[in-house]
Amino acid sequence: MVKLELDPPVKEEAWWLVLGNVQTSELLALKRVSFSDRLVTRMELPSEPAILQSFCPLPLLFPA
């Protein structure tokens, strides 16, 4: 009888934070995040005023 001590690593739940322009279907930022109760993160956005003018600060979260 052989006993293996190799357990698979525990994976934390993660989500994709997606920021984009809905009108032009342009992806502005994409980041994989994991959190428990609250998340604070930084993302770089384009500095062009025309792109950010129609930006709605409502991020979408999808399971990773």
UniProtKB/TrEMBL annotation:
Superkingdom of the source species: Eukaryota
Protein name: Uncharacterized protein
Organism for this UniProt entry: Colocasia esculenta (Wild taro)
